[in-house]
Amino acid sequence: MTPLTPYHSQPPFSAKQRNQKVSPMKSSNPTQCARSAAIIAAFLATSATAFASGNHAGGHDESPIGKPGISSKVKRTITVEMADNMRYSPSDIQVKKGETVRFIVKNVGKVRHELSLGTPDELAEHLEQMKKFPGMEHDEPSKITLDPGKHGEILWQFTEPGAVHFACLMPGHYEAGMKGQVTVVKK
Ligand SMILES: [Cu+2]
User: How far apart are CA 146 and CA 142, in angstroms?
Assistant: First the structure.
């Protein structure tokens, strides 16, 4: 009389079965190999694209208007007030090329205002976006949106000589004249 082997004493599957489980990766089926190669090629292409766009994003900080400033490099602090008469004070600012400025921006009005640095093209594009999405918030270093009574900072380094524009793109404000200019002069 042969005793029954308890089921649990059997290995879950034989070595041969295990091999069968992993073997599909080593398939010699040419179609499958070609497909794997295609998948790898597609992956590499995607990586290359991601890398390229990463470089682009990295270069995005450098623009004709300058780049985000570093606190330790600040040479000047300029306070700019934003008021409900749709004016900045001051609205004409002169800086030297290479200078890093700490703008302390104050909303002294009773409605929300913003200060966005940009080229005229960038500001025009931003104005169109604001018309479509009036509540949009900015977390870009070149922009600040402030509720009434609030103040905040923009740290900016002006790297190119010329004019850097700024504007409030809250609906109707730019049109009412809420804009200004930073003139960057060569040293
Ligand atoms: Cu405004």
Answer: 14
